[in-house]
Design goal:
heterodimer, A: mainly alpha, about 0% strand, B: mainly alpha, about 80% helix, globular
């Protein structure tokens, strides 16, 4: 059942390749704007790269939240999907996983290219990818909750922004902080452990919260 | 005296507490308390400001500028406590389907956001003379700013949902997720700051205060509390009238012309 749900989500995402490509296109374009706006000094760019890429990853993960549950709610399939017992939790988890696969993973794959554009060293780049790997699933889970809370509302996109951004501050801090610590010659285990801890906490709490939000939205 | 010395029957006591969960009774109770609360807030504020501006001594290092502390500290304190109160009442309202608790949470949110703005603005005004800059990315300032965003997120969500049946629990869920996150955000921001630039400015190392300063601060805090209660009850009364407008007791009130 879980597998079927995931297959369905991914197939739906594949059917709209333009939508699926949106986060990567956003990331590439926005990342090109920073050197244009800040000047091309390599040292400055290299220093700012982890922060810039993390902020962009955060913004890119917000892009298509609004449509996460909207189509299913519109054609009534969401009501059907929520009928079986304990299905809301599973649906929320699968949606978050699918969102991460279609948004977080492409981002992760595009990061080396951008890191090289910013002149990052290879060990910093590896750590940046590791921190993104640990951090972006938390962002997908948070976005999932926001999407369920704002399901069917008119200004949902703005609301998602207001809900997700404050809550994602710790992920952003530890994610970009890990690379900063490495470049400052400090140990990075603490940052990565905290990112992993945040991910575990998010995995335990947020699908359940999203399930509750879905039930509230469909009263 | 006999009435006071005889212990009240337990049944009647619990009954009395839950009585005010009914919006109509809460409306009446808050209406009776309000004049006193406003009076208390005004009196305490007058006394507190008098103590703060005329009695408290000038600070040895910061001169007169430190006096903004008497507004800044109570506002910052209340901004954090009110978020806890908001989450508490929203959760009660969601868990027990208590309309009044959800209304109270809604009434608390704008006041909490207001105190957060006051704390941030007064902090900026205080930072300019003492640190030489309006804004520093200090851990406390940053987490206060994020607290403001949490308030705004809650407010935006409950205002965007028209159906109160959905708005109240959705807001409660968001407030609960927020309240769990507040300590995580605070500590992450603190760590982020110490990691990057070290504690160049520490707000925690407060100089020891003179007696009159403490008194003025205590009175100003009580004034802010009284003001918060007064304004929250006033707003709660407005929300009750709005939500219960089809009920008989509100119609009766408006006929009598006392609904204002």
């Amino acid at each position: 059942m879980t597998w079927l749900l995931l297959q369905r989500e991914l197939r739906l995402a594949m059917r709209r390749p333009v939508d699926a490509g949106l986060p990567v296109a956003f990331l590439l374009l926005a990342a090109c704007l920073f050197p244009l706006g800040l000047g091309p000094e390599p040292e400055q760019l290299r220093r700012m790269a982890p922060g810039v890429l993390w902020v962009l990853a955060l913004l890119a993960s917000l892009l298509s939240l609004h449509s996460l549950y909207a189509a299913d709610a519109q054609d009534g399939s969401l009501d059907q999907l929520l009928l079986p017992p304990h299905s809301a939790w599973r649906l929320a988890a699968v949606k978050a996983l699918a969102h991460w696969l279609s948004h977080g993973l492409p981002l992760l794959l595009a990061t080396p290219l951008l890191g090289l554009m910013y002149g990052m060293h290879s060990d910093s780049l590896g750590l940046l990818m590791l921190s993104l790997l640990l951090g972006t699933p938390s962002l997908s889970l948070l976005g999932n909750l926001a999407a369920a809370l704002t399901l069917g509302l008119r200004n949902g996109a703005l609301l998602n922004l207001l809900i997700v951004l404050p809550l994602s501050v710790p992920v952003l801090i530890f994610g970009s902080g890990a690379v900063g610590a490495l470049e400052a010659g400090l140990p990075v285990d603490g940052h990565l452990s905290l990112l992993a801890a945040l991910l575990i906490g998010a995995l335990l709490a947020l699908p359940a919260a999203t399930a509750a939000a879905l039930r509230i939205a469909l009263i | 005296m006999d009435m006071l010395s005889s212990p009240p029957h337990p049944m009647t006591r619990t009954h009395r507490f839950y009585t005010y969960a009914a919006p109509s009774r809460f409306y009446a109770l808050a209406g009776r308390l309000l004049p006193g609360l406003w009076l208390l807030a005004a009196g305490l504020a007058a006394l507190g400001l008098y103590l703060a501006f005329f009695k408290a001594p000038t600070d040895a290092t910061q001169g007169q500028a430190y006096r903004i502390l008497f507004i800044h500290v109570p506002a910052a304190w209340l901004s954090m406590l009110l978020y806890l109160a908001l989450a508490f009442w929203a959760a009660i309202g969601w868990a027990f389907k208590a309309r009044m608790a959800s209304l109270l949470a809604r009434a608390i949110a704008p006041t909490g956001a207001g105190f957060t703005v006051i704390a941030l603005l007064s902090g900026a005004l205080w930072g300019q003379p003492s640190w030489g800059s309006w804004w520093v990315w200090d851990a406390r300032l940053t987490s206060e700013l994020i607290l403001l965003f949490l308030y705004l997120g809650y407010l935006a969500l409950v205002h965007a949902i028209e159906d109160p049946q959905r708005a109240d629990p959705a807001g409660a869920l968001l407030a609960l997720v927020g309240v769990v996150n507040v300590p995580i955000i605070y500590f992450s921001v603190r760590w982020w700051n110490t990691l990057h630039q070290g504690a160049s400015i520490s707000l925690t190392a407060a100089p020891r205060m003179a007696e009159t300063m403490l008194q003025a601060l205590a009175v100003m805090s009580l004034a802010c509390w009284a003001y918060a209660f007064a304004v929250i009850f006033t707003r709660a009364r407005g929300l009750i009238l709005e939500r219960e407008r089809d009920k008989a007791w509100v119609q009766a009130l408006s006929k009598k012309g006392q609904a204002t």
